Amino acid sequence: RPGFSLSLRVSQNVDRLCADPDEIKVSLLKIRARARAPGRVKLHTTVVAAFPGIGKSYFARQAALKSNITVVDLDSNDFPRAGFPANYVARVRKLLGIADVVLVSTHPGVRTALLASGIAPFVLVYPAAGLKAEYLARYDRRDENVPGFRALVASNWDTWYASLAGQQGSAKHVVLQSGQFLSDVQDLVLGGSSSG
Question: In 29-169, which ranges are E strands?
């Protein structure tokens, strides 16, 4: 009975999805991708490793409202430290071919894991070296001000900048200047590297 088999599979999938809210999001993205691009097997996904405070959340919201692209902002704070960054990169891999853009952390372990797992090339977006004071001020104004985050960035700015600027491998570098946000360089970022 073909109808029964399909119904059983759908029911099993719904039960599985209800157990994991992130799986529901991925499934909804798949449905949206299929509806937008009937006949296309895969979408072209751009993976963007973006520094904190460059406007990832704003970019994702604006893309949803103003354009026909699907942007997923993966906050590394939402992933358990046990198994990180493998669990994080596994989620990125699930989104390839489903979302148009996946925004990810610039954490060195994430960048290394992206390259090691073949999720390359990716776009690396970070501020110019001399913008430390501007970014610390941005963190002071953020709604989700995480205790200790500002101090962490302040004490590691030079090291993190050197790591980002020195990133080798399959990464396109986009360096933001004073007053710039991700949305200001959208065409440069989306016209660049991708995977999927």
Answer: 46-50, 71-73, 101-104, 122-127
**pLDDT of 66 over the 80 cut:** no
Q: Is the Cα dihedral 161, 58, 183, 111 positive or negative?
A: positive
Evaluate the omega torsion of the peptide bond into residue 127 and state whether it is cis, within 30 degrees of 0. no
Q: How far apart are alpha carbons 147 and 151 in whole angstroms?
A: 9
DSSP H or E stretch at residue 175: strand 171-176
Residue 46 CA to residue 57 CA, distance in Å, equals 16
Inform me whether the pLDDT recorded for 19 exceeds 80: no
Burial 94-127 (b: 16+ CB within 10 A, else e): bbbbbbbbbbbbbbeebbebbbeeebbbbbbbbb
154-196: pLDDT as tens digits: 999 999 999 999 998 777 899 999 999 999 999 888 874 434 4
Instruction: Yes or no: say if 192 and 171 are a contact pair by the CB < 8 Å rule.
Output: no
Q: Give the predicted TM-score (pTM) of the model.
A: 0.77
Residues 6+ apart with CB under 8 A from 64: 70, 71
Closest CA to 97 of 48, 42, 23: 42
Q: What is the pLDDT of residue 38?
A: 52
Question: Is 122's pLDDT higher than 90?
Answer: yes
- Beta-bridge mates of residue 173: 124
> 70 and 29 in contact (C-beta within 8 Å)?
yes
